[in-house]
């Protein structure tokens, strides 16, 4: 009998293993997330779209670029989505609908999503950076999904980014060079 088999023969070990498997399954199950609001990061430099699950147990910070953040803050009930007018017209022409946005991975300090489309078999999925897709997802009322594991990883990255920003604040000469096109 192997060590694993001996451990599993114990009722206590068997319960621990089942609990661990159930916990891992819960952490990897997709949870629907809903838009909660937009805020600025602690450095007041980077806008964050805040998503929460139905019970507000999970909070997912989605880091945005300033253009998408300003777009997301607009009241869209009365005006056309000017930024996405062409994309929405093309999607309509080809019978494509953006159904859902699934947060899939974090690489460095970037979040990635898989956009799931319906209506045309030639476009079913598209993997993109989250900050490039959020305003389109909001414009099309796409549903958002993430796993608990993804949310936890984003919290870790958010903490890392805060540490980096704190280091940059200690050295103001970093980033002080003006861009040649900025007046």
Give an overview of the whole structure.
With 183 residues, the chain is of the alpha+beta class. It has one domain (29-170): Roll (Bifunctional nuclease domain). Helix content is 41%, strand content 29%. A hairpin with a 6-residue loop joins strand 5 and strand 6.
Topology:
Elements: H1 3-9, H2 11-28, E1 30-40, E2 47-53, E3 59-63, H3 66-73, H4 85-93, E4 97-107, E5 110-118, E6 125-129, H5 130-139, E7 143-147, H6 148-170
Helix pairs in contact: 3-5
Query: Tell me, what's the shape?
Result: globular
Number of helical runs? Answer: 6
The termini sit apart by 75 Å
Question: What name does CATH use for the topology?
Answer: Bifunctional nuclease domain
Alpha-carbon Rg, integer: 21 Å
Instruction: Give the CATH level 1 class.
Output: Alpha Beta
Shape-level CATH architecture: Roll
Count of extended strands: 7
Largest sheet: 7 strands, mixed
Keywords:
single chain, 183 residues, alpha+beta, Bifunctional nuclease domain, 7-stranded mixed beta sheet, 6 helices, 29% strand, disordered N terminus
In short:
This protein has helices at residues 3-9, 11-28, 66-73, 85-93, 130-139, 148-170; strands at residues 30-40, 47-53, 59-63, 97-107, 110-118, 125-129, 143-147. The chain is α+β, with helices and mostly antiparallel strands and 183 residues long. A 7-stranded mixed beta sheet has the order 3-2-1-7-4-5-6.
